[in-house]
Amino acid sequence: MTVETLPPPRLSVGPVAWLRANLFASLPSSLSTGLLLGLIIVLGINVTSWATTEARWEVVTGNARLLLIGQYPADQAWRVWLSLAILSALTGMSAGVFGRTTRTLAISLSACQLLLAALLAVSPVGPLIVAGLLANAAGVWVGFVLGRRGLVPRRALVVAWVLSMPASFLLLSGVAASGPLPSVSSNLWGGLLLTILIAAVGIVLSFPLGVLLALGRRSSLPAVRLLSTGYIELVRGVPLVTILFMADIMLPLFLPGEVRLDRVARAMGAITLFSAAYLAENVRGGLQAIPSGQIEAAQALGLNGVQTNLHIVLPQALRAVIPANVGLFISLLKDTTLVTIIGLFELLGIARAVLAQPESLGATMEIFVFIAVVFFVLCYAMSQASYRLERALGVGTR
Amino acid sequence: MNVRGEPVNNEAVVADVAAAASPRDIIVARDVHKWFGELHVLRGIDLTVTAGEVVVIFGASGSGKSTFIRTINRLEEHQRGDIIVDGIELTNDIRNIAAIRSEIGMVFQSFNLFPHLTALQNVTLGPVRVRKWSRERAEERAMELLRRVGIPEQAHKHPAQLSGGQQQRVAIARALAMQPKIMLFDEPTSALDPEMINEVLDVMRGLAQSGMTMLCVTHEMGFARAVADRMVFFDEGLIVEQGPPKQIFGDPQQDRTKQFLSQILH
């Protein structure tokens, strides 16, 4: 007996068939489609007409400098540009050398810069800022091409990344009262610059701290385990606002009079310590998911405890908790808005200062829409990078 | 037929071998006890293995056979008695444990390959991190081993992309990469589909012929009959009977052995 091979059933294809199948399959379906479509259209028309005719965007564009870098002295703004240029070049080179995930970061960074440039191009802030942003986006691509050609040694790039953060900090804060790099008090830092600085430092420092706490909580040494558990539970039991107040007001009381910790540094420390406790619990979840057979196999090969953690346990555990950790980093970025309550003018704080000017009267919507868009772009870039990272590392498939 | 092939009782086997070739006793276990909580799982195991010997350990599940071979590289700690591997006594001294582990390769029932590394990286990990070989040297050696287990073309795949039989062969190559003097196999074919069992047994057969000292916990009686120098029957935490395969299959002395063999051989 022969079995006839049949062609697969014909599927209805094309946009019309798709519409009929998904949106107008039955009378109730067609009705709800029509209703929702009407709502979306009305909403769209209203928002567009407000944004194009009523909205006074000059409140945003006219205060662009304040919103971006706060009260950082205008004649020293080149230092912010230089820090940004270092970041752009390093990200581009990494994308060329390491590929994969760093490429998504590079694309996100240059896309943000281009978007901002496009927004500012229609404003009266002047062509210089627009040109600066375009130059940075170009810098990302130049770095990428250099890295791709193998002109950047891997190790040098890693060292450069490690050095870049303290270097940028030094560049922004300055070294002496006068000279080529006059010091700029961190009280003057503000706007998007401060938001990104606090978030970046928080993310970069809380990650290793959180991993150490997670390992400490599972340590076989009782003292280490107790300290880690105590720290995690204590910090998770206290609101971030409280920790920020304590860092701002109470910390100086405990320190000797001559030690003056920078206010921005205190805020960064508070956010780092707060975030590390949550990160530790995320990582602990990942550690628990590693089968004991993995550790036994590593031990049987003769790897010691540190090597087993470093090469076998952590790579698998951290990969499994990427979604949770990126979620944490996204909320960390948004939590930086809380530093306004200790008198720092990050993006939201400076926005409220702008609103307090008499000429901004009634432009609340415009300012807050702008802030929301900026945060959305940053958070969306982070979550996209994390999806790409998950795919590159094969989370859930390997 | 070698000296060990003759049907003799336990003590005679060891004495015979010692007299015949005066080989070194590479594993000596004396009165080994182990408890899991209240449960007495090893109740005084005495076993001496000479260099180059292939020992198959069999018995019902829960008889302590896996636990015993796991005490040999200290994945399980024994609580009484002595275990001496290649002249080093297993104690809580971390240096001794590290020294012994690097001389013993282990193959697990569930493979336990590192899923985030490729086959090649699985094999080079030990030599690079523990033996401090250069990456080039380790990779060269790893490719040699992957050829030996018959899957050089899978070197750059991740474990999830390999069949069970291929994964277990990578695991064998990974253990061999450390150039061990002893190989422990803990039911290496129990988790495999039937058609993949032979490809793993073939590799193990080749290894036995090369003179490797092997301790295998397995239910593959065909393999045992063909390859083992000695078979050891575990029951309720004790060695009930041991001897060359010919004796165990042909003329088992203990009732418990007869009963178990009749159950698995039908």
Secondary structure topology:
The complex is a heterodimer of chains A (398) and B (266).
Chain A (H helix, E strand, L loop, with lengths): L14 H8 L4 H28 L3 H5 L1 H6 L7 H22 L1 H22 L5 H22 L5 H20 L17 H27 L4 H15 L3 H15 L8 H26 L3 H10 L3 H16 L1 H14 L9 E2 H9 L8 H30 L5
Helix pairs in contact in A: 5-6, 5-7, 5-8, 6-7, 6-17, 9-10, 9-12, 9-16, 10-12, 11-12, 12-14, 12-15, 13-14, 15-17, 16-17
Chain B lengths: L9 H12 L3 E12 L2 E12 L3 E6 L5 H8 L7 E6 L2 E2 L4 H8 L2 E4 L11 H11 L5 H14 L15 H13 L5 E5 L7 H16 L3 E5 L3 H7 L2 E6 L2 E6 L1 H6 L4 H11 L1
Parallel strand pairs in B: 3-8, 3-9, 6-7, 7-8
Antiparallel strand pairs in B: 1-2, 1-4, 4-5, 9-10
Describe the structure.
- The complex is a heterodimer of chains A (398) and B (266).
- Chain A is mainly α and 398 residues long.
- Chain A has a domain at 187-357: MetI-like (MetI-like fold, Orthogonal Bundle), CATH 1.10.3720.
- Chain A has helices at residues 15-22, 27-54, 58-62, 64-69, 77-98, 100-121, 127-148, 154-173, 191-217, 222-236, 240-254, 263-288, 292-301, 305-320, 322-335, 347-355, 364-393; one strand at 345-346.
- In chain A, α5 runs parallel beside α7 (127-148), α5 (77-98) packs antiparallel against α8 (154-173) and α12 crosses α14 (305-320).
- Chain B is an alpha/beta fold and 266 residues long.
- In chain B, 40% of the residues lie in helices and 24% in strands.
- Chain B is built from ten helices and ten strands.
- In chain B, α4 (119-129) crosses α5 (135-148), α4 runs parallel beside α6 and α6 (164-176) packs parallel to α7.
- Chains A and B meet through α13 and α14 of A and β6 and α4 of B.
